[in-house]
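Hi, does anyone understand the following?
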Amino acid sequence: QVQLVESGGGLVQPGGSLRLSCAASGIEFRIYAMSWYRQAPGKQRELVAAITSDGSTNYTSSVKGRFAISRHSAKNTVHLQMDSLKPEDTAVYYCNAQSLQLKRNYWGQGTQVTVSS
């Protein structure tokens, strides 16, 4: 059974930081590309950051320089460090695991991030 379990969301003031974590089980973690998506109320889900199996990263332009994605294969986890948070970062953040080779795509249940004073 595949599980992606996110944690670390919450309420933070503008300019603050949060660190999201996603623990994966039931997959061969090392071969999956891992990503963080977010969905704000009334908006489409968007890709925030991604890291390939070999560690290459990419970010949506609005978070470059503020967010950092990392993965730890020994613990089957992926993290999203979010600094200098803005109210527009408020959304539900979802962890995603994708293997093009295996044609598999999995989602976590999401964790709420609210940036507000």
The mean pLDDT is 97.
